[in-house]
Each structure stands twice: as C-alpha cells, then as structure tokens.
Design brief:
The protein has 279 residues and is α/β, with parallel strands linked by helices. The protein has a domain of 190 residues: TIM Barrel (Alpha-Beta Barrel), CATH 3.20.20. The chain contains ten helices and ten strands. It has an eight-stranded parallel beta sheet with strand order 3-4-5-6-7-8-9-10. Helix 6 links the parallel strand 8 and strand 9. The chain is globular, with a radius of gyration of 18 Å. One of its GO terms (molecular function) is oxidoreductase activity, acting on the CH-OH group of donors, NAD or NADP as acceptor. Pfam families: Aldo_ket_red. This is Aldo/keto reductase.
Length: 279
C-alpha cells in the first residue's frame, strides 16, 4: 500500500474503505473486517453515519484475523454540526472513541464548514486543542472550499493536514486542488465513483479496455495518479478487493488528461458554500 505524507511528517494510506450510507450492523462490520483482511489499512467513518460501533467491531475482528496491531491501521472519523463550538469537540471525540472502542484516532475531521464563520473558527480551535494535547494524531477538514480555508488559515495556528471533498471525473475541482498543493494540504476524495454513475462513462470504459482493468479500477487509479487519497465505498467482498488492486498498472498522462476533461462541475452531494446540516 502506498502512503502519502502530511506536512507534519505523519503518513496515511492512499486508499481506504469508506462506509458512508452503510447501516450499523453485520454488513458494515463484515465489510470493514474483509477490507482489513484484504490489505486495507485505512478506514473512514463519521459520527453522523451512525455506524461507528459496527466499524469498531469490524476493526477488532479484522486485526485479529489479519494478525496486525492497532498501530498498523489508520482510522478516521468526523465531527458533525451538533458538536461544533467551544466545550463540545472533545466530548464528541470521546464519544466516537467509545463507539469505535479505540484509544485514539489517526485523523479527526471537521465534517463540513457550515455557514457560521465564527463557529467554524471556534470549532477548529477546539480541534487544535485536541491535537496539541496529543489526543489525536492528525486533524483536518472536509468539504472546505478555498474561501473557507483562507479564512481558517488566517485566524488559526494549526494547518489542516487534509481536506476531504467530493471528487470524481465529473467534479475535478482543479482550482481547489492547486490551492491545496500550494499550502501542502493533502486532497482526499469521497464518492470517487460517484455512486457508480461514472462507471458507465464512455471514456472511462475505453480506458478500462486499453488497460485491461475495470472502470472502477481506472477511476481509483486516476485518483492515485492525481496525488489524492481516496476512500471508495463498497460492502461487496469482490469489489472491496477490486478497489484496492490498482497498484500493478498505471495510466498514461494522456489517459489521465482524458479523464480530467470529463469535468462537468457536477455535484452528487451538497454545496459546501450553503450546507449547514439541515435538509
């Protein structure tokens, strides 16, 4: 498994398992367990997914079966709007640890910036407190735009190590990517397969034929070639295995550019500029 390095010197696997919209229960536990046994070392969940307990069970069973230690894994969870603000962040972090049955997280993210700048800044300052007290290995953000990041960086001390955003061939976000690169903040993609929507794309399928790989593997490899961390979601054992089997081939610059040109600025999720946690 290839790792990326954060600006603080810590590292993270470039591919992980995402569990967004996977219900708490056996399916979630088994997906996490199978991922770990199949070679995944990064698992990404969030409080609002309401599946941290099953993720924790899958981690325990997966470690046992794979014969690895907690230190071999990289576990991420996220802070939801309900726990923004002073005095709330550490409690929420402790709740996630309790749900996951872990002593620490490798990465804790502010899930969305929200529409209240002061509240967002206060929240990040509480995240800094967790990090400075060595309760969490790394802190980062999710769904932050350039504007959100500029405000955050102007008013806080600890720079996020990562920004997890919606990113797929129909939403390339090149301006954001260049901004993050200039600040040495890693870009991470959620919904890299756009809920399988991009897998029917003609260009993706042409490149799959050219490389002898599946459309999903082509898109995941495109993420890798562009320097992103990515967390494709699946609960199907065969697809979990397929999604990580992307290190035995590469895409040419021309193939990467053909995929880049598919951009439509099309979002599958909410707009970070206006989303505040309410539907």
């Amino acid at each position: 498994m290839r790792n990326v390095e954060f600006h603080n010197g810590n590292t993270m696997p470039q591919i992980g398992l995402g569990v967004f919209r996977v219900e708490d229960g056996e399916e979630c536990k088994n997906a996490v367990k199978h991922a770990i046994v199949s070679g995944y070392r990064s698992i990404d969940t969030a409080m609002i997914y309401k599946n941290e307990k099953s993720v924790g069970e899958g981690i325990k069973e997966g470690m046992k079966e794979a014969g690895i230690d907690r230190s071999d894994l990289f576990i991420t969870s996220k802070l939801w709007f309900d726990d923004f603000g002073r005095g709330n962040v550490e409690k929420a972090y402790d709740t996630s640890l309790e749900n996951l049955d872990l002593d620490y997280l490798d990465l804790y993210l502010v899930h969305w910036p929200g529409t209240d700048e002061e509240l967002m800044i206060q929240t990040w300052q509480e995240m800094e407190h967790l990090y400075n007290n060595e309760r969490v290995e790394n802190i980062g953000v999710s769904n932050f735009t350039i504007q959100h990041l500029e405000r955050l960086l102007q008013r806080t001390d600890v720079k996020p190590v990562i920004n997890q955003v919606e990113y797929h061939p129909y939403l390339v976000q090149n301006d954001l990517k260049l901004f993050l690169e200039s600040r040495k903040i890693i870009m991470e993609s959620w919904s890299p397969l756009m809920n399988a929507k991009v897998l029917n794309d003609e260009t993706i399928n042409e490149i799959a034929s050219e490389t002898g790989k599946s459309p999903a593997q082509v898109v995941i490899r495109w993420n890798i070639e562009n320097g992103l961390v990515t967390i494709p979601k699946s609960v199907t054992p065969e697809r979990i295995e397929e999604n990580i089997d992307v290190f035995d081939f590469s895409l040419s610059d021309a193939q990467v550019n053909r995929i880049n040109l598919l951009n439509r600025n099309e979002r599958n999720g909410s707009d970070p500029a206006t989303f505040n946690g309410k539907k």
